[in-house]
Amino acid sequence: MSHRSPSLLAFPMPKHARDASSQPRKKPLQARSIVTVTAILDAAAHILESAGPSAYSTNAVAERAGVSIGSLYQYFPTKDAVTRALIERESRALFADLSHAVSKAHGAEALRAMIAVAVHHQLRRPLLGRILDFEEARLPMHHDMAAAGNDARDLIVRCLGEMGVESGDAVQQAGDVMSIARGMVDRAGQRSEIDEAALRPRVEAAVFGYLREMSRIRSPGDERN
Amino acid sequence: MSHRSPSLLAFPMPKHARDASSQPRKKPLQARSIVTVTAILDAAAHILESAGPSAYSTNAVAERAGVSIGSLYQYFPTKDAVTRALIERESRALFADLSHAVSKAHGAEALRAMIAVAVHHQLRRPLLGRILDFEEARLPMHHDMAAAGNDARDLIVRCLGEMGVESGDAVQQAGDVMSIARGMVDRAGQRSEIDEAALRPRVEAAVFGYLREMSRIRSPGDERN
Amino acid sequence: MSHRSPSLLAFPMPKHARDASSQPRKKPLQARSIVTVTAILDAAAHILESAGPSAYSTNAVAERAGVSIGSLYQYFPTKDAVTRALIERESRALFADLSHAVSKAHGAEALRAMIAVAVHHQLRRPLLGRILDFEEARLPMHHDMAAAGNDARDLIVRCLGEMGVESGDAVQQAGDVMSIARGMVDRAGQRSEIDEAALRPRVEAAVFGYLREMSRIRSPGDERN
Amino acid sequence: MSHRSPSLLAFPMPKHARDASSQPRKKPLQARSIVTVTAILDAAAHILESAGPSAYSTNAVAERAGVSIGSLYQYFPTKDAVTRALIERESRALFADLSHAVSKAHGAEALRAMIAVAVHHQLRRPLLGRILDFEEARLPMHHDMAAAGNDARDLIVRCLGEMGVESGDAVQQAGDVMSIARGMVDRAGQRSEIDEAALRPRVEAAVFGYLREMSRIRSPGDERN
DNA sequence: CATGAATGAGCGTTCATTCAT
DNA sequence: CATGAATGAACGCTCATTCAT
Lengths: 225, 225, 225, 225
Description:
4 copies of one chain form a homotetramer. By secondary structure, the first copy, chain A, is an all-alpha fold. Chain A contains 9 helices and no strands.
């Protein structure tokens, strides 16, 4: 009953945090439950992106999901647990698409495919992505989920390896590639850009331009800056 | 909405005009007022970065600022107005430093100087920057402030022009440069990186790499791999 | 601004206990405040004794007191703090009367006077006394208040000393005297007895009978029971 | 209030009759039922004394009893019914022991034996006793249960009669004896006293001292001291 | 009968905002 | 103007109870 994660909470403590692990109380195994959980997360996503964090209350989520507030709390011990589950779901979906994209190509080609996926994902629900990023920073995530963020990076690391980047540099560069893409894609979403075809090549330019510059710095015997 | 007598509204306007009366938007000019406003914004910044948005309440801000909650509402009509003013102040400070940096060089050199300034700013108060970015997206800013973001972009546009970027492309590329830098610098702040010297060249690589790639795309018949 | 009391909370932690000391947030120094605090405690007492603990909610107390729920929380950080303050007030009132009674006599006479006071107090608000006793057992009281219970006992100890009880035995016997009286008086209250004149001699019989038996046991050279 | 078809209400009555149909008040007679009811009451007692009234919820009781919440409501129409049944059970157990004790002696000897039993009972589960006492005062008990309290008193009445107390006074004095003992024994439990041998003589002193004083009052022309 | 998901009134508490002093 | 007591809508969350399976 006490699968306490060894991670000590870092800081501000979700207001009503009990000692309970904040995992879903009930694993949604039955069809009924899955439907309910899905409805709750859909409602949470909808409210967050259509009305913003200030309208994101558990009562509002429950109402929009068409369930009672009591039911929501049968599946999630706290509001933050709902948020975490939503982050988890979106992260998994993105990661699945990234995996699929990267599995069909190698090196730069695979990286380009990942960029396309990232652009596509973000432009479909631009606000949601930004908000969840922000919440994620505030939330103590589970280990396996914190790792999920690294999973995406590992895909990039592999691509970089195939492109000849030394493994010592690959991890840092993969992180930079992610932050570059995220920065551009977030801004596009914020400005309501919806033209993937226009955004994609610019992200590619930034990513590949960055990698090229870095390889120039790293491997001497090459010309001017 | 404001129970104010319609009489002497001719002059100094202690309260932020809620209705968009476009005349005097400047903050209170008396010495006392400036001190109070500064104290409030300092308190707001401190609370946001040290305890996070959940601790950011008007009462807490007033208390830390050493003024009564009533006084706070003399200078700011709403909580969001405080946040907006803080964003404005930080933006102005950043813009001032950017202007200064860019005034002493040209082209790529000036751009590099701006990058240095941006990195420096963000790494000094990483959480505050992120939080204010987020709030800014949520808040309806005054027109002249929305323009302030564009002011920084204009500095970049000028650099790009000096670097030979066609003016038709410069605006978009300047925006991309900002988002690239912001993406990298935010992530660094989130990860508590504090080494400016390590971060700066990577941001430069991303920015200049992006620009090089874009110039290649725009002006064909000039490639090198 | 942080007058944190050095008393560490002992045990079960009122549900939403924050780290704040649960003392009144605002010492009621102004006339207005005293009136408000008094109204709140009166309301709390009334609800507890007329409708029982299940109806004793902060909202109900505030409503009956004629103040807003927000005001209640200006003066008391938690619901338990209200309860504690009520206990404190009632205890002080009882203790004051006991002190006064005991000051005018000595030995057995003083003890008899205390019994009269205790009977009088309990029969006036029989349910309230019982409920507060119960709550007191559940609540982590402040040191100086936990001591208040002992203050009453000390009055009895003094009487016993004057009656010739050895000081080694006096503390225990004083405690027993209190529990004997409390048991009888509580039961009378529960059964809605209102005749003080009928109850008083029976309590006296129990108290003095107990003391006589104890002195017989303690001092040998006296016959069988 | 009860959605039951009016048909076969002739026989075994699995649910506690909510309306005061006075026919079969006994608890379920089938083996399964008895086991379940016992488990529920055990769970209720355990939770009350180990975690207190605030943790005493129907869901918690059902879980600890190893039955579903639905089953609990098959046997008890409300939460209060569970509490009442627990009080009833504990009262019966105490009464049984008291009866047994009193059956082997007469007069003062029997009374002493009852005191021993009462002390023993309370010191074994001190919190539970106190909590149930409190709940009992709050709950509308069944008539035959309210009588159960009187049953114990009747045992004392008999002892007093054997000791020569006039039957006109015996009932009141028996009640006082009970409240004296309960007051002392409750307080001992509250203070975590566990030494029965130390408590017993003090209770005896109080009880017999009280009776002696009362007899002196009632029958004048017999004093000493 | 047993089950346990579902319900929703209601709890304790917060905080942006107002206004009498 | 400054103050800070007062307000109350709204929040996160619980739990006694019901009812479809």
